[in-house]
Request: fold
Amino acid sequence: MHKKSALIIGGGPAGLTAAYELCKHSDITPIVVEMSSYWGGISRTESQNGNRIDIGGHRFFSKSDKVMDWWQNIMPIYSDETSFEITYQNQKRTINTENNAHPAHDSERVMLVRNRKSRILSNKAFLDYPISLNLETLKKLGLKQIVLIGFSYIKSFLFPIRDEKSLEDFLINRFGKQLYEVFFKSYTEKVWGVPCSSISADWGRQRIKGLSVVKTITAAVRKKIGATNKSISQKDTETSLIEYFLYPKYGPGQMWELVASEVADSGGVLMQHKEVTQINIENQKICSVVTRDVKSNELETISCDFLFSTMPVKHLIRAMEYKIPTNVKRISEGLLYRDFITVGLLFDKIEFDLDDNWIYVQESTVQVGRIQIFNNWSPYLVKDPSKVWIGLEYFCDTSDEIWNMKSTDIVALAHKELNVLGFISDEANVLDKRVIKVPKAYPAYYGTYAEFDAVKDFTNSFENMFLIGRNGMHRYNNQDHSMLTAMQAVENIITNNSDKENIWAVNTEEDYHETKNP
Reply:
């Protein structure tokens, strides 16, 4: 009998989750085709002389029980206790850790519980992020700014923008114009390279969801009176307000390398350095794909019964051997992306004593958008814990000057900007460095995005093709959302469900498909 196979384009969280689910719950053989030498996509971990880089920063947190359990099945949580409680949907369950009750440095395959701390650097002051209207923040803002923020918020509350089209409209309605300009505007426009007024409000609905001034104040009051949610799941906490998270000991790539290994052990086929150049179609079904080895240029045709795509939508449409409707081709070609550069720099010390995971740089005097302190994600990301290993994140387009600069010049720019921001002195010596460029890191919510439904309807018409993940769906999904799209697609195959709307519904509700108790 013919054993069915599913070709999966891309070995990131969505692609590898699909492969793992197929191995565990079906007799369909997954064939994962990855263009790079890494597993995990943008969630990979790269190494520089023993110091590890988390590209973009990946907190392992989800309000989905299925995802939380899935992660813990791959990598158990390390704890000093032999057991502890976590809460899902206000129901407690006990996690036994007797097999892992030893120091974390003695165990490789563990998830650490990490404190979450991020701040905004604005006007040379560190302000809590997400917005925390505590006494310290109010002092830094000053009386005049507080009054302006208050009146601005009241105005937005009483007279909201009715036709909320842009991200600017979305943020002003929830925070008021003044708070929007202090906390959001500069950083967001660095990320996207266009004014917030040109970005669809859909981005805010997906990334910020239910966060508002009222919920921020409520969270601050609960924290002050000791009513903070102490469970790992934190299901009743808005995503932007979570205070701790799970994190693989050696960074997110460790998770996805383990998943890839388990897929291979379960009979899945893993192929790296392979680019999909052509998708062949017969009778409105995908029948095979053509791959090109990026090292040898050798072409190979691979037959398949199902296709999962996480590749950028415009490249998927280009690769399809099919008469593409003119409108679909125009829209797919007009989909835009933002690219990303991480600059890892190692120092003996920096001027600030920081316990932040991230610093969001709201200063318009520098190009850097965000700064990671890798030591605070996991101490095991740093070879010598006495050193400070930081990452500067630059958002750009491949046509921008910074993208096309030599690595030495990018390092010099990063060093200069750290000095301007006060993180290092003029004499600070860079002990090690690494520049990583990631094209198409963020699908953009401008260009032809507003017309994307026509592309979605077209791709949905191919019964055995499933678009999943961030670039696969041109949607700024978190890691867990990408996984959920893969899980749902596999479930649809197993249950013979041809309606793909449940895949596209992932990350459209406010609570990741979970119902909060009122």
Q: What stands out?
A: The domain at 337-443 is CATH 3.90.660.20 (Polyamine Oxidase; Chain A, domain 2). The CA atoms of residues 473 and 516 lie 27 Å apart. The radius of gyration is 23 Å.
